[in-house]
TrEMBL record:
This is (S)-ureidoglycine aminohydrolase. The lineage of its organism: Bacteria, Pseudomonadati, Bacteroidota, Cytophagia, Cytophagales. Its EC number is 3.5.3.26. Pfam families: CENP-C_C (PF11699). The keyword Glycosyltransferase does not apply. The keyword Hydrolase applies. Signal peptide: none annotated. It comes from Hymenobacter bucti. The gene is allE. Keywords: Hydrolase. Residues 66-118 form the Mif2/CENP-C cupin domain. It is an enzyme of class 3 (hydrolase). One of its GO terms (molecular function) is ureidoglycine aminohydrolase activity.
């Protein structure tokens, strides 16, 4: 038996790694029949919220968005999502973006279904309409190479439209692929590793990460990553976009 006194999770001023071994469940009104892990939110200094919900076959998520829009992505299993009068079965890799002021229900999951959510307070932009509900699947998106590097591919899941103030992308690194530079930028990230292993550099500190781990990167947290191991490493990530810097 191990003491359980170690973890790869770290929580710092401008970044965090959250490994599943430290999850403690939250009770979220309307989200029942499963576990809800709040992985990133304003309590840690973030301006986004990221959760991971694991449902039993009796699980249900019912609610209505208010100031925050919510992006729901199925990581494992399947579930029936109803937004307004549109109802669809979401299997692995499918998602729905729920704009502000919209009711939603997720029900009839298979046992063990996992749903990742990204929440952000919506910032309207004069002259642009607030986005509507957006359904999709990761394989609908093209996967162009990133900055000319064949080992890196990015899929943009949400439309490239100024009405949106958040992006959600899937980033695939072939074994040995690495970011072409250390990024230093105003945008914030939340991410979940969907596959593989990597070394992530955050604020000049180095971390081994793997499938199931989440990372928060505050604005201007320096970041670099390299895929390690024999399979591609893949993460889905949030980024705030398209708004005037204040
Ligand atoms: O879009 C991005 O900023 C992305 N390249 N960052 C990252 O993967 N850490
Ligand atoms: Mn980045």
């Amino acid at each position: 038996m191990t003491l359980g006194s170690t973890t790869r999770s770290v929580v710092k001023r401008n970044h965090a790694i959250i490994a599943p071994d430290g999850y403690i469940n939250s009770n979220v009104p309307g989200w029942t029949g499963g576990t809800v892990n709040v992985i990133i939110n304003e309590q840690m200094g973030a301006r986004l919220c990221q959760t991971l919900v694991t449902l039993t076959d009796a699980g249900q998520l019912t609610g209505a968005t208010e100031a925050s829009q919510i992006f729901f992505y199925v990581v494992q299993g399947q579930v029936q999502a109803t937004i307004g009068d549109d109802s669809r079965i979401l299997t692995v890799g499918k998602f729905v973006y729920v704009p502000i002021g919209q009711s939603y229900t997720f029900k009839n999951p298979t046992a063990g279904t996992q749903v990742l959510t990204f929440h952000k307070v919506y910032e309207p932009l004069a002259g642009h309409t607030t986005p509507g509900v957006c359904w999709g699947e990761k394989d609908d998106s093209k996967a162009p190479v990133y900055m000319g590097d064949e080992a890196l591919r990015i899929q943009e899941l949400l439309p490239n439209d100024l009405g949106f103030d958040m992006a959600v992308n899937i980033f695939t690194y072939q074994p040995g692929g690495n970011l072409p530079m250390v990024e230093t930028h105003i945008m914030e990230h939340g991410l979940l590793y969907l596959q593989g292993q990597a070394i992530y550099m955050l604020d000049q500190q180095w971390y081994p990460v793997q499938k199931g781990d989440s990372i928060w990167m505050a604005p201007f947290c320096q970041q670099w990553a390299a895929s390690i191991g024999k399979e591609p490493s893949v993460y889905i990530y949030y980024k705030n976009v398209n708004r005037f810097p204040t």
